[in-house]
Amino acid sequence: MVSPVNRLGLTFAAAVGVCASLTFVDGAVASLPDGRGYELVSPVAKNGVRPYAAVPSLNGDVVDFQAPGAFAGATSGSLNLYQATRTTGGWQSTPLTPTPPKALGALEEQAPVWFSRDLSRTIFTTPESYAPSDEDGGALSLYLRDSGGGLTWLSQGAQGGSEPNHVTFDGATPDASSVVFSSGASLLPAATGLNTAVFPEPEYLYKRDVAGGQTSLLSLDSSGQPVGYAATVLSADYTTGHGGIEVARAEGFAPGGFITIGAGESAETTQILHVHHALGEGATEELVVHNGEGLSSNHPAGTTVTHPAEGAILGDGGHLTSGPIPAGEFLPANAGSGSTTNAISSDGANVFFESPSPTLGQPVSLYMRHNNSTTVKIAGGTPYGATISGLFGQEETVFGSARYEGAAADGSLAFFTSEEGLAGATIGRQLYEFNATEHEIGGAAPMSTKPVSIGLQGDRSPTTTLTVGAHFPQETITVASTEGFHSGETILFGKFETLGGNRNTTLMLVVKAVTSPTELTLTTPVNSAGFSGIVEGTEVHGVHLASVTAISNDGSHVYFVSDGALAANANAEGATATAAQPNLYAFDTGTGETTFIGTLVGSDVSMEGQPSGLVGEPDISRPAIPTPDGSVVAFASAADLTGQNPWQEYTEIYRYAVAGNTLECVSCTAPGVKPTGNANFGETAGGTYDPPGLSSPITEDGSQVFFDTPDSLVPEDTNGGAPLSAKFGTPTSTDVYEAEGGKTFLISSGTSTNPSILQATTPSGDDVLFTTTAKMVPENTDGGYENVIDARVGGGFPSDEGSGAPTCVGESCRAAFGVAPVLTPPASTTPQNAGNPPTAPTPRPVKCRKGFVKKRVKGKILCAKKRANKTGHASRKIHRAVR
Length: 883
Fold this sequence. Notes:
This protein has 883 residues and is mainly beta.
């Protein structure tokens, strides 16, 4: 398809007499689809360095890419960002990374974290100082580079600038007029009172008005207090050794929260075990602390008791880890966990944030800050009806949490998950939309929350009661009726007796089998959760948990997974939703209609008991990308959704269209041909369509889908079936493909023994960027190093072997320092010695820093770090590998 808005390339190609279907060197394909021609984007002279992470401008005439070394006039041998510009004679590259005043130290990098859509503005995180007042001792700061090369210091405020606190980029408006970042540094007078006694270190959330040169604190309530802050006083003298402290009121305090008693040297910080509310006239409220062991000092009546602010994060972006900052920590906040996509609206008016960070293990609340003045609490941090038997024989409420999942780009709708059972939904993780406007949207009233994951008629989850008390170690429970329950059903118990410290959670288990009309066998014995037993008469609810897969950029469509049967329609293959299975749905926020797409397999949504893939990875990493209006979504799944993948071993790429409810596999092999590896979207990313600085593998109109695969899907692809990597077990050769109109076309050579990896596309699909070691054009005389290639509609340059147009500018296209790379970056092959072409297929390398270990997730090698939270329980955080 030739885009009607991009005829310039065709006109140029015709003028110079270049045909887009030439036969290229190294056995490259004889005819490319859409009248495409190959163009070498990266320079020939690269000092043996491999480029990667290519991102195009909207029209494809400018491309940014990164490389862990110096060429084209760069003055640092560390990580560099380069910009290639298309001219009439070829692509010319210049470095964009700021020139450091001195050579960077080991593990120090200056990395881009954001690009404007036209690539004229870039935000860098750097340990270097480029402003007189930036005297933070080498801590990470943020700078905006404009098209003229000027640098603007972003991470500053009315005070500070000399504290050694790192700054994390969190988000920006499309024009970078507003930039959100987080830091433990107090940059404004209102930034006070963080609870630094908890781990990880809390951070303030700031927004920088770039044009106005002003910084504002976002994590405030409408009265100007830090969100989460609460205060009271001791209503009676406290004597050490007592487990409870009497307070004037307990409002704002919750089990699990940290409190500070007193001030100055006599202050003590401890954790609340239980909130004992006042009973009857004259009764006092009490906070039970420190596992009932009390405090270490005496405190008189009237002493202040505060719940300090515990910081905030944009969306669900996570915190910057403490300690030395390696390359992996230069990624935006949402690259490590959660989602910050569109958490700042395109006009900067609405900002969605959470407090405290989910990593603290405390109930998390979701807020919206509007115009730097008004804060709306959306959900989380409140009791949600479930109760457990606590101390003193009281029923203690359970506090829920909310997790930001995404928003419309204009900030009109925000989407989140919560177990609180809001607006008529059942308890357990459900998906909700929040209408942030002053008018109704699809049945959602202004400033209200509406359930998404309950289906048209409401989720009819099964409910029964225990007829015999359950005691450990017991795997089978006796209930009044098993009607409606299925194998794999998640069940929630009501009130139960407890032992130990499990007072702040609900008991959820999974049904292994329905063994009789009155018996359910569980996958985990009752005692495994640390409970002594569950009393007769306890209610047992089936819970259909929901997880987000993708959200369209205009907020009109949400794709999610639920194990409930939420829609009655048959999909394109005649299948219907299956209870207790991972069903994929589309939800229309305008009509409120839920549509069943297909039933996935466990590997799509879980890995070793943890969410992954289509529901668990950060939104920019989920293999599901919709068009801006959500009318089409492309996603990767190992399920046999169209009858073409009966093996269900590797992921294939599917295209779903709302119109007609159509579903097709665009990467499936011929009938009877077993795939050899995963088809995927390469280095492109999505979630909502094309987040800033990234690129989508689907065109804006949804007509074309791009992917790479190790399988030969057309006769011209002759390198299929290449041996697996001995180190990683992945295929050593992959090729880039285009799917359109029910047909599949080869984009890369189809002959290289090394991987060709999809990097990015333009919204029109006229430019498809990929990296490869194959010699795709005559002027590529670098001896077999990896390069960035553009398969461009109407592309191609007139050149003879070895005499192509200059592809870099600068002092002889050489580095000033010539420093060797210090880190292994994302790329598709390992480095080669200068002047020596690669002689064997090589996998994409993964290098994990100290404290991280390699972990395979759905064919990808990731780095996982094990952390301990405040209670000593281990939690795992999966980071996309620096590969």
